[in-house]
Amino acid sequence: MLEDAETGFCGAVVRWEKAAGGVTVTLEDRRGRHRVFPAGPGFLLDGAPVELVRPALAAAPPAVRRTASGSLAAPTAQRARVVRASRIFVEGRHDAELVEKVWGDDLREVGVVVEHLGGIDDLAEEVRAFSPGPGRRLGVLVDHLVTGTKESRIATTVAGPHVLVRGHPYVDVWQAVRPSVLGIAAWPTVPRGTAWKDGICAALGWPADPAAAWRRILGAVRGYADLDPALLGRVEELIDFVTADVVHP
Question: Which CATH fold topology does 87-177+221-243 show?
């Protein structure tokens, strides 16, 4: 117990505070009463004079950094990961750019490369050329993967123990971006016979320039919260598959 030499008040230190005249210390006696005193000399500990000095504050823990996908970021000093033999294929450049923006840090950490195909009409040939097998897995992200579509029929021809095909239900990966991120209520419906991206630009009153429209859409994406779960879950499945150490059932 500390004792204030001038008043004889005895108590334990319960609080330090900054004040206009310097630093104060609050003592609490055995009855729970508090008294505030200027820090410094003028105190006794077991009858011996002591000077109260505010202890140094503990360093704040480093801020937790997360990637755009919401994962914990690896330490910046971590060595680069050797690229795995396994890969993830996506249909087009826009798919690849969106995956890179949200999952790029995660993929570099685990050494997985994403390649875009320019469509999936030749997917079976691409898979054969890749030669998937143990330790050389292939994940494929497909647009408009809905039962009964061309995409679903192609997917069934390539799936296997070392190939996992997953997809979202949208016509194009543009729709996997939440409409609210772009300040719109919903993605417009494009009439049959109209080029989908041109129709989207026209319906939203944007210039008839799909490349510029995509830059606008991608630029609005900051992280995983800006994407629809229908895409988020499928990409996470593919990453898990190509980085797993056991054969996928």
Answer: Rossmann fold (3.40.50)
